[in-house]
């Protein structure tokens, strides 16, 4: 009779690997400082690094006793450091507080630099009404800053994810990109694609246009230059919306210095081979300076772009229709904002030609700058405008076309007289004065105010730079912010007209408000361009021609000082 052998009892092995490494049959390499293991830190897309240790039960353990947790007995998800077990004596990374939490935590406030501490207590949204969501949303996305500024974008105290907040604090997704693999760079890149990019091509930062996703986003990901420019733009955005001067932000300046080095190194190659890539990269540097930087740094970038276009052989040799349209659109936006001549179209053979306007286009794209088969009064129900507001827009369209239309034979005195009559007529139109005006009443107030300014500048040949005083522009912006950006997005043609008239006076208000005004003007133009570049360029060109007409008539002395007198 064969004797049966009883298997020797064995102790259950403690599972030290995380679930993801066990699933992939990889050797887990937990880090001493805690957080996700080294393997999960490099995974893309991000995964949750979950380690479940099951220590053996001691014979004398009672059910009332809780087992001492293992150092790896924690769950990490999307960079958050949270434990599902009881307290352990093993040191663990402390969770990062949000900017709002930091401002309420005196102990943490003492650990950050005085410059950062000064802005943490100062809420950016205080500059804007509560209904203005653009800045409020961005504050939630602004990540906590490191107490010690980095020496360069590739080094510094950015090694530990404990110093930062955000979704990418505990993972590293940069192995396929030409960027230093640090948690801070991962945060900035995520912030760029999650917040900066949508707000560059969409008025409310939502529903990114398909043209951008199809033509521009793939290049941004594959470009050898754009990832570094992306983290620079993200850093500049965060610095700007924390009310830090971008030109004084040590992190942004450090990244900018690194970007300039790699671009200069890139340009040492054959320009015939790298010209297209260089043009796409440097236009983003110009946009960064226009939105968040200084005018002194903007124009050198524009000059460099002009030289590179010449080296490329002009617009006909660019062989990139989308990039060509972006250059033309940006050139008109800069010219309208600074009331200057065009700077990027010296070699554009179509510079003096009117861009084609489709016979029919969306009602929301209708603008006082452009002709249309239907009037605003006929489309007022579709646009949700009052009859008074629609009639004002129709009058403004008539005045604009009398200046910009090639078929118009109106002389200066006739145009001035027409503008003067409209201005006096607008002054007699009553506007709502209720404490809480409705949306329709707000549109009427904004359109009425903009039309008064527009007709005054044309009738008196006043430059738009001096159109608004500080108080009047602040009042206009306060009314604009009472209307959600999603509503403005439905009528970008009218919104662009309002912003273009106000944008040259942006230097007369607070810097934060001026930056918002310039940025929204450019983004609104780009939003229309993503639907129809010809329509967007035609609207910008019409306003630019009105500015040029005012300047030309002023230079020949056509000003009539009595034009607005009763």
From TrEMBL:
Lineage, opening ranks = Eukaryota, Fungi, Dikarya, Ascomycota, Pezizomycotina
> Whose protein is this, by species?
Hyaloscypha hepaticicola
UniProt-listed PROSITE patterns: ZN2_CY6_FUNGAL_1 (PS00463), ZN2_CY6_FUNGAL_2 (PS50048)
Give GO MF terms, alphabetically: DNA-binding transcription factor activity, RNA polymerase II-specific; zinc ion binding
Name the record gives this protein:
Zn(2)-C6 fungal-type domain-containing protein
Q: Which Pfam families match?
A: Fungal_trans_2
InterPro entries referenced in this protein's UniProt entry, alphabetically = Fun_TF (IPR021858), Zn2-C6_fun-type_DNA-bd_sf (IPR036864), Zn2Cys6_DnaBD (IPR001138)
All copies of domain Zn(2)-C6 fungal-type, residue ranges = 17-50
> Which regions span the lipid bilayer?
521-544
Polar residues composition bias: which ranges? 95-110
Where do the record's region annotations for Disordered lie?
A: 1-110
Residue stretches of biased makeup (Low complexity): 78-88
Q: Which UniProt keywords apply?
A: Membrane, Nucleus, Transmembrane, Transmembrane helix
């Amino acid at each position: 009779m064969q004797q049966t052998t009883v298997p020797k009892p064995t102790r259950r092995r403690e599972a030290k690997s995380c679930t993801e490494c066990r699933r992939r049959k990889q050797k887990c390499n937990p880090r001493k400082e805690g957080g996700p293991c080294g393997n999960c830190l490099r995974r893309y897309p991000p995964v949750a690094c979950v380690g479940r240790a099951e220590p053996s039960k001691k014979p004398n353990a009672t059910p009332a006793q809780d087992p001492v947790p293992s150092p790896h007995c924690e769950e990490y998800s999307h960079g958050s450091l949270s434990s599902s077990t009881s307290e352990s004596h093993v040191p663990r990374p402390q969770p990062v507080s949000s900017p709002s939490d930091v401002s309420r935590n005196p102990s943490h406030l003492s650990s950050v630099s005085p410059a950062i501490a000064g802005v943490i207590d100062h809420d950016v949204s205080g500059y804007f009404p509560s209904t203005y969501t653009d800045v409020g949303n961005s504050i939630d996305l602004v990540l906590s800053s490191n107490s010690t500024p980095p020496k360069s974008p590739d080094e510094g105290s950015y090694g530990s994810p404990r110093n930062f907040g955000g979704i990418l604090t505990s993972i590293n997704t940069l192995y396929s990109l030409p960027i230093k693999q640090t948690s801070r760079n991962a945060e900035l890149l995520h912030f760029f694609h999650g917040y900066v990019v949508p707000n560059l091509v969409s008025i409310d930062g939502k529903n990114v246009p398909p043209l951008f996703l199809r033509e521009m986003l793939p290049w941004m990901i594959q470009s050898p230059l754009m990832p570094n420019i992306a983290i620079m733009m993200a850093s500049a955005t965060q610095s700007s919306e924390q009310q830090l001067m971008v030109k004084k932000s040590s992190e942004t300046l450090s990244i900018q210095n690194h970007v300039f080095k790699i671009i200069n190194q890139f340009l040492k190659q054959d320009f015939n081979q790298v010209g297209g890539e260089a043009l796409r990269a440097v236009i983003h540097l110009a946009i960064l300076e226009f939105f968040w930087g200084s005018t002194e740094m903007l124009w050198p970038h524009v000059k460099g772009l002009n030289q590179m276009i010449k080296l490329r052989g002009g617009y006909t040799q660019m062989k990139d229709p989308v990039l060509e349209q972006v250059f033309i659109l940006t050139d008109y936006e800069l010219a309208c904002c600074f009331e200057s001549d065009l700077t990027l179209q010296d070699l554009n053979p179509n510079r003096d030609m009117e861009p084609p306007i489709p016979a029919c286009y969306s009602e929301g794209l209708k603008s006082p700058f452009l002709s249309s088969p239907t009037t605003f009064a006929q489309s007022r129900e579709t646009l949700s405008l009052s009859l008074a507001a629609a009639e004002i827009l129709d009058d403004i369209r008539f005045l604009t076309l009398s200046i910009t239309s090639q078929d118009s034979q109106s002389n200066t005195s006739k145009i001035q007289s027409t503008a003067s009559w409209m201005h006096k007529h607008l002054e007699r139109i009553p506007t709502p004065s209720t404490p809480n005006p409705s949306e329709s009443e707000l549109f009427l107030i904004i359109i009425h105010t903009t039309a008064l300014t527009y007709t005054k500048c044309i009738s008196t040949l006043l430059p738009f730079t001096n159109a608004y005083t500080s108080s009047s522009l602040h009042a206009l912006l306060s009314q604009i912010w009472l209307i959600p950006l999603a509503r403005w997005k439905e009528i970008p043609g009218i919104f662009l007209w309002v912003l273009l008239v106000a944008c040259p006076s942006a230097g007369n208000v607070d810097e934060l408000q001026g930056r918002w005004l310039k940025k929204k003007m450019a983004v609104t133009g780009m939003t229309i361009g993503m639907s129809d570049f010809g329509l967007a360029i035609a609207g910008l060109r019409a306003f630019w021609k009105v500015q040029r007409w005012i300047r030309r008539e002023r230079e020949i002395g056509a000003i009539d000082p009595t034009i607005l007198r009763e």
